[in-house]
Amino acid sequence: MKTGVHVGRLPDLAVLEDVRVKGESTKEWLDAFHEMSGTSLDHRALHEKILRAIVASTGFAVIDQVPGRVVGCALGVVQGSWMGIFDVVIAREARRCGHGERLVRGLMAWGRAAGASQAYLQVAADNAAALALYKKLGFHEAYGYWYRVKR
Predict the structure, then answer these.
(1) Which of 3, 26, 84, 147 could form a disulfide with 77 if both were Cys (CB 3.0 to 4.6 A apart)?
(2) What is the value of pTM for the model shown?
(3) Contact 29, 60 (CB under 8 A)
(4) What is the pLDDT of residues 42-52, one digit of tens each?
């Protein structure tokens, strides 16, 4: 499967009230992310270990459809003038409603406020909805790569 690394500039954006960003992972973020992404228990423990090992500035973002009902999660990691955007997931029943755009815009605003001027992310080449969103937000593919599995 081909994956693309996309890059874009971080414009000055207004902070969005329905996007909350915290500097560390919370039980709310972890539970919502793992439920929406369908993470297995074994993978969940590994994922949480990886998150705890991040030393750069982190922003764990959630978006509520209604107060108290998380419908999306994302992670931003700022290092110097760059922000990496990771773990973007929207609940299946809440997709195609604009939540992903608001979530990523909110995270981009946080990254800009944290000192980043550019961002990068990885997206599967067959994820048409994500590709359209990231293009709309000003991202373009810098390069692609493939995972290969020996049979």
Answers:
(1) 84
(2) 0.91
(3) yes
(4) 899 999 999 99
